[in-house]
Each structure stands twice: as C-alpha cells, then as structure tokens.
UniProtKB/TrEMBL annotation, chain B:
SUPFAM superfamilies registered for this protein in UniProt: Adenine nucleotide alpha hydrolases-like (SSF52402)
Domain Electron transfer flavoprotein alpha/beta-subunit N-terminal: 22-219
Gene3D superfamilies tied to this protein: HUPs
Domain of life (superkingdom): Bacteria
PANTHER family recorded: ELECTRON TRANSFER FLAVOPROTEIN BETA-SUBUNIT, PROTEIN FIXA
Pfam family, one: ETF
Single Gene Ontology MF annotation: electron transfer activity
Name assigned to this protein: Electron transfer flavoprotein small subunit
From TrEMBL, chain C:
UniProt cross-references to Gene3D superfamilies, sorted A to Z: FAD/NAD(P)-binding domain
GO molecular function: oxidoreductase activity
TM spans (from-to): none
Top-level taxon of origin: Bacteria
Name the UniProt record assigns to this protein: Protein FixC
Length: 100, 292, 436
C-alpha cells in the first residue's frame, strides 16, 4: 500500500488531446442535433458523456460541432429524447486512429 | 486531347506530428494518401476531358509498391491509363532527378501529351520543383499555382483561362493554349468520390511498373541535385513588431494599421515589352537592388 | 447486375471478427468482399488492448508468431483496488504464459487490424476500404446484399456477415437488435503514452518481450461505475478508463477528466511519469452481457463480434477480440456450410448459434450472465475497494500502541460502513456471479 499526499488534479484541455488525433473532415456533418429538444432537457447527458467534448450549452442554447467527432456513438445512446440524428461519415473520412 | 497527370503519395498533413522539443517528425504516425494538390490536378484533368467530350487521362507516379494506392485512386476517379515508375535507388532521388525520370517516361510515347497537370507542391517537402523542372526538361511552357481554370473553344482551338496565385494574396489571370504544363494548388477544386463499380474495378486492376533507368531518354544529371537538407525544425513564430498607430488617424484607420502590421501597399511597376527586353529589365532591377 | 458486383459472401467490417471470417471464406475458394468504412482497417478501432487466446488465430496462420504485429506477451497480471490515497494490489506472474501460444498479447489496433485484413486479402478476399455500408438489400424476407454509400453502391451475395462493431446498425436495421440503453453500454477512453522500451521494462519489472496487464477498480473512476486499465506495449503504454454511459451522465463527469484523475492518482502517477501522449481515442463497448445478445441470424444474414454484443465484460475480465475472432470463424463455417447446401434460410444459418453454444463464446457469456449486474453494484464499485484499503492500512499500521488481532480489525472497518447482512448478501452474489 502506498500513501502519498494527493495533489490537486490537473485537467488537460480536451482540445490538446484532440490535436493528436487525425481527422479528415467532410463538408457534410454526419451528426445533426435537433436543438429544440435540448431546451428542456434537464440532465443534458450528451454534454458529459461525449469523449471529445463536442456538446456545449452556451447562453441556454445547445451548440454542437461534428468536426472532431471520434465516432463512438455514445451521444446517440445517451440522448433519451432521440434528438441526435447519427450516422457514420462518408467512407474514408472522419477520424483515423494510428497509434491506439 | 491527351492529358497526363503526375501524382505522388505523400503523408496527409493532418497526420504529421512534429515533436515540439526535438523537432523530429514521427513517421510512424503518417497516413500516406494521394497528395492533396495532386488530387486536384487529377480532378482538373478529368473535368477538362469531360467538358471536351473526348481525350484521355494518363496518371503517372514514381514511387515504391505502396504508392500504387494513389494510382488506384486515380483509376477509380476516372483516369484511363495508369503507370508506376520505380527503381530502388529512386528512394534517394531529389526533385530534379524525379522530374527527369517523368520526362523520360512521357517522351517514350510517340508524342508528348497536349497538357500535363501536376500538383503545385507535395505535403512533405513542398519544394514545388518537380512540375517546373518537368516543364523545363520537356521544353514546355508552364503556369504554376493554378487556382482557377476554365476551358473555351476558340475557333476550333482550346483556350485556357487560368488564374494563378501570387504571394500576398495577389492573383494573375492568363490565357494559354496547349501544349502546356500546369501545376495546381490544392484549392482549385474538390476531387470527386468515386462510384462503387469504379472503386471495385480500380481495386482489382493490375498496374504496369517500369524501371526509369531503362527508359532510353532518361538523362539524369545526378550532380545537379542542388538541394541539401541542413536541418528540419518546426517554425517558431517570429515576434511581430507592431507599430503604434498614428493617433491622428481615425479609429477605423488605426485598426487597419494594427491588423496590417503597418505594412504599406507594395510599390509595383508594370513593365511591358518583348521577352528579351523584359528579362534585361528584370536583371537590371535585381542588380540595382543588390540581389545579383 | 454486373458480375463485378456479385460475391459469394459479403463481410461488413474489417475488425477481428470480419477479417477472420473473410480469411476462412476466401481460403475455401469463395468470392469474398470485405467492406470497411475506414481508410484502412483499424482506422476506427480501439481496444485496450490485450488479445487473449491468440492461439485461435495462430492455428489458422502458421506464420502468426513471426509476422503478427503484437507488442508483448502477458506474463504479469495485476488487479488493483484503489482508495482515494491508497492502493491494494493482487500481483500475479507466471512463466506458464511465456511460451506460444501465449495466454494474451498486447496489440495496437491500427497495426494489427491492417495486418489481419492483409492476410484475408492474401487468401483472395477483396478488401473494399473507404466504403460505408448503409443498409442491407432484401428479396422478400431474405437478405441478398448490401447498399454502400457510393454511386451505384449495391453489392450482392446470398449471405452477408455483419461484423460492423459495437454500434450494430445493420443488426438493428435487420430487426435483430433493439436500441441500446445507456445502462448496457460502456464508453472506453484511452491514451497511448510513449515511455521507451528500457523504461517500461525497468518500471514494470519485465524482461525481453514480457508484458503486464493491469486493471483498476474503485477510485480509478471516482463515483462513476467502471474501471481502468494500464497495459504495456513495446515502447508505449496503453491506459484508459471504461465507464458505464448512464452512470457517467448521472454523475456529470466527463470521461477525459476521469482519465486525468486516474493518471494522477498517487498509485498510478509514478508509472506514467514522463510519458509523452501519442494519441487519444474512444470507443463504445457493449457490456450488457447475456441480455444484450440479439437474434444472431435471419435468412441471408449472420451477426458476429461486437455487433452481436459478444463481449465478455465481467469486472476484471474484458475480452472482446477473442470473442470476435471465434464468432467470426463460426459465422464463416456456417456460411460455408450454407454454400455447400445452396441453402441460406434461417434454419440452415441457425447452425451458427449452435456452433457458438458449443464454444467458449456463448458458454462463458451464459455462465457469467449475472456478473455485469453484480460488478455494477455501488458498494462493489466504490465502497469495498476503499474499505479494503482501509483495512490493509489498519493491518500494516504500527503506532507504538498495542494492536488488536487482525480479524477484529478488518471486521471493525467493514462494519462501520456496511451492515453484516448487506455484506453477506454481496458475498453470496459474488459467489453466484463468479464462483459457482
Ligand atoms: C477501451 C477498450 C478497451 C478494450 N480492451 C479490450 C481488451 O483488452 N481485450 C479484448 O479482447 N477486447 C477489448 N475491447 C473490446 C474489443 O475492442 C472489441 O470487442 C472488438 O474490437 C470487437 O471486434 P469486432 O470485429 O466485432 O468489431 P470492431 O473491431 O469494432 O470492428 C468493426 C469494423 O467494422 C467497420 N464498420 C462498422 N460499420 C461499418 C459500415 N457500416 N460499413 C463498413 N464498415 C463498417 C468498422 O470501421 C470496424 O473496422 C476493448 C474495447 C474498448 C473500447
Ligand atoms: S441529451 Fe439529447 S436532448 Fe438532451 S441536450 Fe443532449 S442532444 Fe439535447
Ligand atoms: S459520436 Fe462520440 S465523439 Fe462523436 S459526438 Fe457523439 S459522443 Fe462525441
């Protein structure tokens, strides 16, 4: 057993992590969010579950960008209101992992 | 109309990662693709062929076995014939020798193509040399940095209206007739997404490979390889010195001064005359400024 | 229809399930199309990744041990219970896992998947990359091909194997799978850190090609249900957290924050010190277990791997790739049989389920079907690891005062947080889920 004084956790901004990932961004978004449904969504799970942090509520409105999507499908499973229209990007586009 | 397109496999820019401290490029994380500008060159060639309703597009690459990928992409997009040149020693060739090999291959046909398209630069070394050198070896006129291209029929002859990109956002419009070599910038167009049957046919195609050293007209001047790479490093942003805007100016003009960094418009002088006179004028100008 | 667009079998997805299936089918001389949406196989795929039971593939590919791009073979397995500032580990190592066919090897998916697919191509399969399959094509009730997202995108075959991974869109479109709930699915986020070969060997006590697989529970994911892992590759580490999506949403924590916390836990930080992050990735895992397994066949269609939720996720176990390979092989054999009889009806294809029932795939999943619910128990997730650490602390603490006997020390620690009754009930459930 180890006991070491705990330091406060330093959070690395998600943008820095995403910089290491290769994206080939298509012009047409592969995910669409019907943001009207988000206005009275209390828990906004998508904001917390998305591993790329692509959902953000600014001034009471949902803002989503598809460009750095890791194509995991988590948001789609988490959104109970089915406000997310989810598809894969065009073949060969989107994210490509190289070192994982 | 016979069109040739020279293609290259190069690491996709978004897959290039440079260690911020050592400056080393991590080649393991490269994703090799058809060089973006070359894809636009191919697309331009295909559109031209389609517009004219006749002709053929020949896609040519010099590269190792893996680079057949780019020829398959070319075939799927609509190239009529494809060919790969390779010799193991070519791995060390610089842009001039590569251009000499491509020139030798194009000379091996009974006649030269009417038009040759190249990408302006590749995403790896971006020397932008292969296209111009190829034009020089073949004795063809050339237009580099093409960002706009329209084809017209002018009394039965093809006339190209070309927009080229100059530095600092300047543009140049030119009229040209084949034979000609064009190097294309990666913003010229959006390369097409091939249909499934074309994609399948390309995957199944067998690709002709030729040894450039066996081409009769291949005359590489290995001595002439003038480039020596001394060092590779990530550019560090140069500190930008901002002049304090003149307080006499209106706020609007002051903002303008801040965002342009106080650079004034270039002093340009238009000189007209025959090519010889212009060349003399140019040399005189360079001497006057102490460049030569 | 062009002859070009007609195949004997279409396999969707060049992951371990799809590529293994395509390999076997192509070897048997069938015309196989292996369709992958990524620019190359592995471009979209993420695992920890320990590939268990690699012997499954080594049997098929005699050159496996010379050629396959694996990183290290696992001879050391560690399970760690993390408290807030303490850690209690079980550390197991054996030389018995150090000879081929190893018990498990670490791999990097982009490399490994590419290689495996290349083996299918060598056997004669046509690998169609950069192509998304949007839907299945039907004739009456029978699946007769797939629709790809390209112009003239139809491809035909009397039997299609859907090995399209965790999202399982094709099985859903075919009416075999339902929509998932956020309780059944987990999200894994992962980082690969470069440390250098020497450092890895020294830091983790390894020699040569030996490797370590280490799993963490408890404080690893804070109050979110899930766990964390840390595996050694040749000169990099793979580490990540795997969390239940519903729990993540309830606790309102972001997955990458959990990753930061895990990396900075006092018991983990020294292991990852000076590591340079090479890549960050994320993927879903169908961890619902037995209840999530869809109907596996319909006329002209077989579902394999993650697409059929064939993942063995039972607490300290996370095995998906070997299940994917085994199910891919079973699907391929079934498709071969169907071709021999020229019969692609549901009745013939049901042989697939039988094959899986006879193999470890469905047997393990059925035997451990109670485990997912058990490991998602709040107390097991957070309380017990913390208590275990506290009890250990009591045991090891030396303060210059008379000590109590160990049994009463431990019981006292436990009893102040849980009732004896709850403890017994959890013990009973642990037994049912894992032991008998
Ligand atoms: C973080 C994490 C850690 C894990 N750790 C381990 C571990 O240590 N050991 C282990 O054994 N398992 C592990 N797993 C589980 C393992 O990754 C999966 O079980 C395994 O990848 C399943 O293989 P598959 O072939 O079924 O699916 P996948 O590997 O997902 O392959 C599916 C393929 O289909 C392609 N595809 C999908 N849809 C389409 C479409 N419409 N058209 C064309 N192509 C398509 C995808 O691009 C992909 O290549 C882990 C998973 C995660 C997320
Ligand atoms: S979970 Fe769905 S409805 Fe709620 S905010 Fe997110 S996208 Fe909108
Ligand atoms: S698919 Fe995954 S990465 Fe993409 S937006 Fe949804 S949750 Fe985020």
């Amino acid at each position: 057993m180890q006991q070491i004084a705990s330091e406060p956790v330093v959070m690395q901004p998600i943008e820095e992590r995403l910089e290491l990932v290769r994206f080939k961004v298509d012009k047409r978004p592969h995910i669409r969010v019907h943001t009207e449904a988000c206005r009275d969504c209390d828990l906004t799970p998508c904001v917390y579950v998305c591993p790329a942090g692509l959902f953000e509520i600014l001034g009471g409105e949902m803002h989503f960008s598809y460009e750095h999507c890791l194509e995991c499908g988590t948001c789609y499973v988490a959104c109970e209101r089915k406000a997310i229209e989810w598809d894969y990007p065009r073949g060969g586009w989107g994210v490509s992992f190289r070192a994982s | 109309m016979r069109i040739a397109v020279c293609l290259k496999q190069a690491p996709d820019c978004s897959s290039v990662y440079v260690d911020p401290i050592s400056g080393e490029v991590d080649t393991e994380r490269f994703v090799q693709t058809l060089n973006a500008a070359d894809a636009c060159a191919l697309e331009a060639a295909l559109r031209l062929k389609e517009q004219l309703g006749a002709g053929s597009v020949f896609a040519l690459t010099l590269g190792p076995g893996e680079s057949e990928e780019v020829l398959r992409v070319a075939l799927a997009m609509g190239a009529d014939t494809i060919e790969r040149l390779w010799h193991p020693s070519a791995a060390d060739w610089g842009p001039l020798t590569i251009a000499a090999a491509l020139a030798a291959r194009l000379r091996a046909d009974p006649s030269l193509p009417d038009l040759i398209f190249c990408g302006e630069q590749s995403s790896d070394w971006a020397s932008g040399t292969v296209g111009p050198a190829l034009a020089a070896y073949l004795g063809l006129p050339q237009i580099t940095g093409v960002i706009g291209l329209e084809a017209h029929q002018d009394s039965g002859q093809l006339l190209l209206r070309v927009t080229r990109r100059l530095e600092r956002g300047y543009r140049e419009r030119l009229l040209a007739r084949p034979p000609l070599l064009l190097t294309v910038h990666e913003t010229l167009n959006e390369p097409r997404y091939p249909s499934l049957p074309a994609h399948l046919a390309a995957l199944r195609a067998t690709i002709t490979v030729r040894d450039p050293l066996s081409l009769p007209q291949f005359a590489a001047d290995f001595e002439a390889e003038e480039t020596t790479i001394v060092e590779v490093r990530t550019p560090r942003p140069r500190p930008h010195r901002l002049p304090i805007p003149d307080s006499q100016l209106s706020p609007f003009e002051r903002i303008g001064e801040i965002i342009t960094g106080g650079t004034s418009r270039r002093q340009a002088r238009l000189v007209e005359g025959s090519p010889e006179e212009l060349a003399h004028e140019l040399v005189r100008f360079l001497k006057e400024r102490g460049f030569v | 229809m062009h002859a070009q667009q007609q195949f004997d079998v279409i396999v969707v997805g060049a992951g371990p399930a799809g590529s293994s299936a395509a390999l076997v089918l192509a070897r048997a001389g069938l015309r196989v199309a292996l369709i992958e949406r990524g620019e190359y196989p592995g471009a979209k795929n993420v695992s920890g990744a320990v590939f268990y039971a690699p012997g499954l593939l080594a049997e098929l590919l005699p050159t496996f041990w010379d050629e396959a791009p694996f990183e290290r073979y696992i001879t050391r397995r560690v399970l760690t219970f993390l408290g807030k500032e303490s850690a209690f580990s079980l550390d197991f190592r054996t030389r018995h896992f150090a000879t081929p066919p190893y018990n498990g090897v670490t791999i990097l998916r982009p490399k490994f998947d590419r290689w495996l697919a290349s083996k299918a191509v060598e056997a004669g399969a046509l690998l169609i990359t950069s192509t998304v399959v949007d839907d299945l094509l039907y004739e009456g009730e029978r699946v007769i091909g797939v629709q790809c997202r390209r112009d003239d995108g139809a491809l035909y075959a009397p039997v299609v194997i859907a090995a399209d991974g965790a999202n399982s869109f094709l099985a859903k479109k075919a009416g075999l799978q339902r929509e998932f709930s956020a309780e059944e699915m987990s999200l894994g986020v992962k980082e690969v850190l470069r440390l250098g070969e020497r450092t890895i060997e020294e830091r983790f006590n390894l020699t040569g090609d030996e490797g370590m697989a280490s799993e963490y529970v408890g404080e690893a994911t804070g109050s979110v249900k899930g766990g964390a892992f840390l595996y050694t590759n040749r000169d990099t580490l793979s580490l990540g957290v795997i969390v239940q999506i519903a729990s993540l949403a309830q606790q309102r924590v972001r997955p990458y924050e959990l990753l930061d916390r895990f990396k900075q836990h006092p018991a983990v930080a020294p292991l990852v010190r000076d590591g340079v992050t090479l890549e960050y990735s994320a993927h879903m895992i169908p961890e619902g277990g037995w209840q999530l397994i869809p109907r596996l066949v319909r006329a002209g269609l077989l579902v394999a791997g993650d697409a059929a939720a064939l993942v063995f996720a039972a607490g300290i176990f996370l095995e998906g790739m070997n299940f994917a390979v085994a199910s891919g092989l079973a699907a391929a054999e079934t498709a071969l049989e169907a071709h021999r009889h020229g019969d692609f009806s549901t009745a013939t294809l049901t042989g697939y389920r039988k094959r899986l029932e006879q193999s470890f795939v469905l047997q393990d999943l059925q035997r451990f079907r109670l485990t997912p619910a058990f490991v998602n128990n709040e107390r097991l997730q957070n309380l017990y690891p913390e208590l275990l650490c506290q009890a250990a602390e009591q045991v090891f603490r030396s303060e210059g005062r008379p000590r109590k006997k160990l049994g009463s020390t431990i019981l006292a620690t436990l009893r102040c947080k849980v009732s004896l009754w709850t403890l017994l009930r959890d013990g009973w459930q642990a037994g049912r889920a894992l032991f008998f």
